[in-house]
Structures are given as structure tokens and as C-alpha cells.
Specification:
homodimer, Chorismate lyase, 6-stranded antiparallel beta sheet, 7 helices, 11 strands, DNA-binding
Chain lengths: 235, 235
DNA sequence: TAGTGGTCTAGACCACGGG
DNA sequence: CCGTGGTCTAGACCACTAT
């Protein structure tokens, strides 16, 4: 049996995850939800509080409740530049598109992503430069059936991650963090040595059960790390 | 202004973090808290629900609410063996104590840990073996003023992490994840090559504002990874 | 069966902040 | 000012489960 506040929670979550309600959109005020669900205000409040806890909405007195800004990339945001850990501001960020190809998903990758082998994809490779030094290489696959508008976007001036966030702000994501040795190509791009330890963040995101994008972001291990208090949550 | 349910939440959290209430201990039933805080049952319930959300207590009908088992090591638990990702059971775990020394904290490390330079510590090094292969090397510092009983423990048969969990089950922790190249000693112990990419988890834990332990766990990068959905939480 | 938590109601008063 | 969320009350009924 699903309780009333759980139903309210799930209904609103679904609207946000599906993109029906986008960041900044106002959600119904409490008394409207009270009328819609025929329940008391406390019950509505419990559902909304849970949504705040998850970071999906923000509530403001007088003005109402709104869909929050996406937080799906927060993990990546927390990557810290070891050499300049102290100075949290004043970094110069730059971005270079290395390759952009429309292809079909190969057999191996299709299996890895649990998607159809012939699905049309956009394959991107780009380099992130911070303070003049290569910071990360990003290898990304965008599923064109899920995000058809990516076909018309050149990604010459906007990083794919940022573009996707604007296009598909909320999604479910799975992360994997690995240590890998730099292969020849990676080492060359990151201006480091072949075999050097790199920290690799892999993320696959879904919306409405369909894969939106798959990305591997590889950082030079001597220059970057994750920090914080991590809580793996149930998948 | 702190609300009633927040005060209840913080009071109980403090009892658990301080070790006053230990895992498995029963916490007062709702009507007792209602009497203690002179508030309604809903207010108590809200505080207890928040504690459940954080994983600090479990609530059972008829029997009451209890301090949950510690979860501070959950991040580490989620390390997955890449080669045997499929088989989630049937692993053979072994543990070897390599070194055990009582020393005083050096200048550099003291700064790193934000502790006094002459603090007495127990320095441990051990090797974790899973299915016959070196899985991780653990380099640990235990602050003897915070955990004096560690002085009498040989750690010959019980892993320090497990012992500490029994001794100091709840604490605040900070994690850092890095990729490092194996140095000669590490490579030898992990039976891999020098310079090989390794995944290093660093964790410092505190209880009542004092450092309890600092540990670096280094895994061979080709055999291990973190997986899951990570939510870095505000420090 | 009885004690416990799970959920809900129909109000209430207050704090905040935009107009 | 007044609409909004933040918190709280004093009950209520039900579900679960140890005994």
C-alpha cells in the first residue's frame, strides 16, 4: 500500500524527472495540492519536505515552491585541483572539442550500455583546460533517439555536459570511479606520460528509462581527486 | 531558533555519535520522548523519521526504535572486484598484519591531520587478500589518546577497521578518492608493477571533534572500482 | 492481545517577505 | 498587508508483531 504523501512525492518527482516541470517552474502551492489529493496540509507538507531533502525542489515563503536547479553533476563539481586546492576561485576554464561524429552503436558498447546495437549516437571527445593545463579528457556518447536536438548542436562553444544539463536537466545517473593507466592517446592529450595513473569518472544517465548519455571523464591522477563525504545510495 | 523536532534529532544524534548509545541499544519509545520534550507525538515522529533517513536508527513496530549498525564504512564496502563483479558472494577474505608500531606524530603528518605534532599514535600496515590475490594495502594511524585501548590490541587476527568499528562505531568521516601510481613498496606488496595505476581511498574520522583514525587504502586499479550513485554531502 | 510505529486530520499560530 | 511556508497540537485509526 502506498501512502498519500508517497503518492504526492512520486507524482511530483515524475513530473520533474520527465522534464514536464523544469528548473525554476513553480509547483502548486500547498492548498492546491490539498484540494487535488483531498488530504490535509500536513500530508502535503511531508511530501514536499521529502522533495526538499532530495534537493529536487526549493520552498520559499510567500512565493511558493519551485523545481530546483539540477544537481546531477555535483559529484564532478567536487573534483578538486590538488595543486591549487587552496585557491577556490580565480581559475581559468577552457574547453576544446576534439572530435564530433555521428555513428551507430557497436556491439560491445551496446552491451555495455544495455542499448540496441544499431542505435544512432553522437560521439564526442573534448578536452577541459584549467589554468592552461589539461584537466580532463571527456569521451561522451549521446543517444540521438533520446536527445534528437544534439544532432543540430555543434558543441564548438558549449561543453556537452552543460548543454545536456540545459536540455535534460533532471535524470537518474549511475557513477563509477576507477583508476586507470593512461594509454598513449590519453597521455598525449593530457600532456602526461603513458602509463600514468589517472582518475576516471564514468557516468551513465537515463531519463524515462532511456539512456541519455554515457561519459568517461579522465583526469591526470597527480593533479586531481574527489573529496567530501560520500554516501552511496541504493540504486 | 531551533525547532523542537530539530532539538530531539540533535540530542539523539549526539548520544549516538558520542558512543553513549551504541548500535542495538533501544532508544526511548515515542510516548517517553513526548513526555520528555513536552510535545506531541507527531513532533517526535518527525525527528525519528529524519534519523531513519540518515540511517542512524531503525524503527520496528511493537519492539521500538534502536540505534542502527554503523554505516561509516559503506563507501569502502561498495568497492567492487572488477574481475568478479558478477559473483557477489563466495569470496574468500584474508588479512595480514605487516607492521605495528607505536610512535609520535611527525611534523608533516601532524599538519596533514590537524593534530599535535607529538601526539602518540599507533601506526599499522596491513594487506587484504581476496580470493588469494592482494586486494588492498591499508596504511593506518590510530590516535592513542582518542582510542587508548588500541595500545593493548595486537591486530593479529582482527582487521583494524573492524576493531575500530566495534570500539568507536559512529563517527564523522571525510573521504578523498585519488588515483596514484604504485611506488616500489606498494607494487611489491600488491603484486603488481611499479607505476601501475591504483585507486586510493583516504579517510579521516573524528569523534567528539578529536581525530580517531586516518587511513589510506590502496587498491590495484585494474582490479577495483567504486560504483553507485554518489551524493557528496556538505561538510 | 497489547504495545509499538505509520499515517492522517483539521485545525492553529508564527515568520518571512513581496507588493 | 496578506499569502506563503514552518511548525506544532491533540487527538484518531490502522498495521504489524512479540508474546
Amino acid at each position: 500500500m502506498v501512502s498519500i504523501y508517497q503518492r504526492i512525492f512520486m507524482d511530483i518527482e515524475a513530473k520533474i524527472i520527465s522534464g514536464d516541470w523544469r528548473p525554476g517552474d513553480r509547483i502548486p502551492v500547498e492548498h492546491e495540492l490539498v484540494a487535488e489529493y483531498q488530504c490535509s496540509r500536513m500530508t502535503v507538507s511531508k511530501a514536499l519536505s521529502a522533495l526538499v531533502e532530495r534537493g529536487m525542489i526549493v520552498r520559499r515563503r510567500k512565493t511558493g515552491s519551485f523545481v530546483a536547479s539540477p544537481q546531477i553533476d555535483r559529484t564532478v563539481m567536487d573534483i578538486q585541483d590538488i595543486s591549487t586546492e587552496a585557491e577556490l576561485a580565480g581559475h581559468e576554464h577552457r574547453f576544446e572539442l576534439l572530435t564530433r561524429k555521428i555513428e551507430r552503436l557497436g556491439e560491445t558498447e551496446a552491451q555495455q550500455l544495455s542499448e540496441a546495437p544499431d542505435a544512432e549516437i553522437l560521439r564526442l571527445q573534448c578536452l577541459h583546460i584549467v589554468d592552461g593545463r589539461p584537466n580532463a579528457i571527456e569521451r561522451r556518447i549521446i543517444m540521438l533517439d533520446a536527445v534528437p536536438r544534439a544532432r543540430e548542436e555543434s558543441f564548438a562553444s558549449i561543453p556537452p555536459g552543460k548543454w545536456l544539463l540545459a536540455e535534460v536537466p533532471w535524470s537518474k545517473a549511475k557513477h563509477v570511479i576507477r583508476a586507470v593507466s593512461a594509454d598513449t592517446a590519453t597521455a598525449r592529450i593530457l600532456q602526461t606520460e603513458r602509463g600514468k595513473a589517472c582518475l576516471c569518472l564514468i557516468r551513465q544517465t537515463w531519463q524515462n528509462g532511456r539512456t541519455v548519455t554515457y561519459v568517461e571523464i579522465t583526469h591526470p591522477g597527480d593533479r586531481f581527486q574527489f573529496a567530501g563525504t560520500f554516501h552511496p545510495t541504493a540504486n
